[in-house]
Amino acid sequence: MLVLHGTEDERAPMADMRRMEARMRALGKVCTFVLYDGARHGFAVRTHPGYAEDSAKQSFDEAKRFLARYLPVTG
């Protein structure tokens, strides 16, 4: 699982993300949590008030790397 999360998300507080991360790890699940400092909820959606261009670009790049690693395209 990949979680791309802004540290200033007003809808999903950081404490909740930390609890979810700890629980996933305790269950032995593969999970990657990437945090974007200062980013708000909806930071990757251009039409959302919380949009943050730099964080959005970084998050899309991270998602591409994650997918290439766990769901590689084979010929």
Topology (SSEs and partners):
Layout: E1 2-6, H1 14-26, E2 32-36, H2 53-70
Parallel strand pairs: 1-2
Describe the model:
There is one protein chain. The protein has 75 residues and is α+β, with helices and mostly antiparallel strands. The protein is built from 2 helices and 2 strands; from the N terminus they run E-H-E-H. It has a two-stranded parallel ribbon with strand order 1-2. The chain starts with a strand and ends in a 5-residue tail after the last helix.
H-E string: EHEH
| Percent range of helical residues | 40-55%
In total, the number of strands is: 2
Shape: flat
Distance between the termini: 25 Å
Q: Count up the helices.
A: 2
Structural class: alpha+beta
Low-confidence stretches: none
Tell me the strand order in the biggest sheet. Answer: 1-2
Strand content: 5-15%
Biggest sheet descriptor: 2 strands, parallel
What is the average per-residue confidence, as pLDDT, rounded to a whole number? 96
